[in-house]
Amino acid sequence: MDDDVKRILDKYKGKIKENIDTVEDYEPSETFSQEYKTFREESLSATLSAYENLCNNVGTVVSIKPKEDDRKKLEDSIEAVHLEITPEKAAGFAVFISLIMIIFSLILAGALYFSSGDFSTALVLPMILIMVSVLLIKPLTNIPNYIAAKYRLRASNQMVLCILYIVMYMRHTSNLEHAVKFSSDHIGNPLALDLRKVFWDIETGKYSNIKESLNVYLTKWRSYNLEFVESFHLIQGSLLESSDDRRVTLLEKALEVILSGTYEKMLHYAQELQNPITMLHMLGVILPILGLVILPLFGSLVQGLGSTKIIFLFLIYNIVLPITVYVIGINVLSKRPTGYSESDLIKENPELAKYKNILINIGNREVQINPFWISFLIFALVSSISVIPILFSILNLQDTKFMGLNFIDYKIENGLPCTAQAQACYGPFGVGAVLLSLALPLGIALGLGTYYKLRTRKLIKIRNETKKLELEFAGSLFQLGNRIGDGIPVEAAFGDVARNMEGTPTGDFFRRVAINIQKLGMSTKEAIFNKQNGAIWFYPSSLIESSMKVLLESSRKGPLVVSKALVSISLYIDKIHQVNERLKDLLSEIISSMKSQISFLTPVISGIVVGISTMIVTILGKLTEQLTQTTQLNQGEAGFGGLGAISGLFEIKNIIPSYYLQLIIGLYLVEIVIILTILSNGIENGADSLNEEYYLGSNLYKSSITYVIVAFLITVIFTLLAIRIQLS
Fold this sequence. Notes:
It is elongated, with a radius of gyration of 32 Å. Helix 4 crosses helix 8 and helix 25 (559-633) packs antiparallel against helix 26. It folds into 3 domains: 22-240, no CATH class; 244-359 and 376-441 and 568-728, no CATH class; 462-567. It has helices at residues 2-21, 32-43, 46-59, 68-80, 87-116, 119-135, 137-141, 143-156, 159-172, 176-186, 191-203, 210-219, 226-238, 244-301, 306-334, 345-348, 371-383, 388-395, 431-437, 439-485, 490-500, 505-518, 524-529, 542-554, 559-633, 640-649, 658-685, 689-727; strands at 358-362, 365-369, 401-402, 405-406. 75% of the residues lie in helices and 2% in strands. By secondary structure, it is mainly α.
């Protein structure tokens, strides 16, 4: 009995050693170690690389030890995103930046004091900056945590495909190392970088075998995506099965676990998303913008130069609030469960990178123009209109009338129109200045919108064609598998499916393969993957590419294995598509609400606020002028003191011109549209940069044009009302 037990144990020990504990079957290239280093450097964005370098440079001078709990979290985040820094250096960088801001604030205080001579005025803004500098230490220290949250979101969005590719490969070849390598070659960053790191840790001797390295890596995901970990463990367990049927059952179970887990988590996420989105909309849109309605009246009653108030408002509305809304939005986005990621077209086919530019054919030459220059030209031409009110003051140009009021309307201290001889002029207060100022946010939005539109329009079209192909591909693979199973050679089977699917993107793909084989004499591999004429390059999809590679790999084991593999893949693809569509249905109501907020509600509210603010400023300006005139006429009469006190409340220099209010509102609108677009795309599609840029271009166009139209109409209408109120 003991001998039997020992024999069984030895048998399974040998099987474990063969399949998991060693990496003998894995054959990395001679430059594999160097490849990982290069891959890491290429994977890190320019921003991350710059942050890494700054932390390392500053860390040699300033190094702060965080609290133990904070340090552990920072350490995990740093390791997760493959940054080569320490928590101490991250904290040192935060303190260093804060010190720089404090020094700048002190210098600014001195400059303001010498320019204005007013100590209180010079102190307000620097004190605010110093407080902000101190408050920023914690968020700046936690930058690795924010990066890690975004990183995990992107990685989670690739996990379904990762498991799919491993299952696809191991269905016909029971080799975990090769399967993981196959998956890393077909999914994008950052998960591809993680999987390469698993092998890198073995290569460098950190871990002795693939099992140990993989399990340590999976432990880091246990708190964030348990389904991914469980699926991997099921895949590992399939290596111990002696029966092919039981092995395949475990592999299919692995895919089912991550798909069902994804759906359940997304269901809970969608249910819990309503309240955070509502709070975000109230905090980021409704309250800040409506708060600007009372600012003209409030600002006129608070002593202090209008210019100081403008700077203060700019800091609050265009820096502090957008950052706050963005941080809250990222926190909401970080809780998004895994999903199905779209194809990275540039990664699949680097030749498509040229479509980010404007292509012009001159003779036989194809000239590429960076859309940045066209966007910058649009921005410069449109935005320059907003400078006209400032030029009126600098050049002392003659003002004109508009609706019975001065068009630009610079005023002196007593509220009367500014003259060339005046020592100090304030403004511009005119409705014309407000209307002209609309050109600045419009120019910024159109410039950015044009840039993103031109960069993505062709790539989005290609992706849509590719998605059509992917939708049909499952059925085509099923047909292909059945034909090969019937004994038809692979080369001929492609032609049969092409004829059956004629007129569809799938049919076109298989037709290209068949033509390459029959007319160009290519092998099946060349017909699909040839760099010039291969069918895959016309439809850049990692899903299709990996399916075709599985076909080629399994073809070595005979047509029956090929047939089973293709039929299984078609079922897997169909399952993933069904789950993905159900996920989109869960989020459809929230996404629809957010899109209406971005393109309609937010710009309309902002435009109305501009009109109301202009009306209030117009009334205040006219009231100041009338009070001044009345005071001058009644200087000798009793009760003058009371009237003088009232007039002193509405000094022109204290009133914030609606010109600058509109600039602040307009810039905030552009910022909030960008933030909400990033958030809505992240909720709907995960970390999909191509869709994000496409939506940014579209939303910036829609929202800015809506805002300008509403602001223009409401400003004119409310100014007319203000005139009637004053005349009555």
